[in-house]
């Protein structure tokens, strides 16, 4: 009887100690340096723009007097690194890139400065700074397409045209269609998240948010957005912004947990040209989803990019740039009107 009790007690100790031993072993096995890029707050060599006391990582290419194309990256919480091939348009346009607040290499900010409304106000300030007297065109990728649409709805007279590269949901109806599909609970995702978190425990610099940003960068890629053989890696981007992703996403929900947001409240009020870029591989916000969203606009065209997932300019930059240039330049052939 006593021996049986001791055996049972030993088993309990092993069961209790097992997870701790596994954690300790993984922690030791992953003990190395995991570099996280510094932001404009600590790296004085990074190009930047200061808007309303907010320091943003930003670059501009092209002649000062050329028509302006503002590039809005995906996210919330991503950066513009994967969109840099657009700078080849600088032979005809003034191409403006920036990492949104709390994202990429821009300054990190408190949660009370992270919301859809504040992201939109930041964009308004940027446009006023870059092009105070002329309307601008926008290239919006994913979340960036949502922001561009919201700006165009508010300021149609300041918007020359929109290029929407598989934008996320543009109204509450489309949000209800896509949000249930975004949940990830697979064993592989949980394992990768856990392993990334353990690795992040070794990160102490360059700032307090580096560890959380590292984890977000490792897990943010959703395979269903991409071609199986062309999955982007964490190295495809500079640095994720975990707090920006979490806080801005949460700001789209009511206190009751319901989503209620329309990025373009009166579609008929916007009469400018719109181009939708649609990839071949995206099974989440690809062709079917975007065909529904296109109905929100009056003057809309679409271009389907073969051999590409959601990261158009990584997967097939030549075809993507050709469609963008054709749309922006009326002297060149344009995509078929839909």
UniProtKB/TrEMBL annotation:
InterPro entries named in the record: AB_hydrolase_1, AB_hydrolase_fold, AB_hydrolase_sf, Peptidase_S33
Pfam family, any one: Abhydrolase_1
GO biological process terms held by the UniProt record: acylglycerol catabolic process; proteolysis
Keywords: Hydrolase
Gene Ontology CC annotations of this record: membrane
Ranges of residues in domain AB hydrolase-1: 67-317
Any one GO molecular function term: monoacylglycerol lipase activity
Family, as annotated: Belongs to the peptidase S33 family.
Protein name stated in the entry: AB hydrolase-1 domain-containing protein
Organism: bacterium (Candidatus Blackallbacteria) CG17_big_fil_post_rev_8_21_14_2_50_48_46
Lineage: Bacteria, Candidatus Blackallbacteria
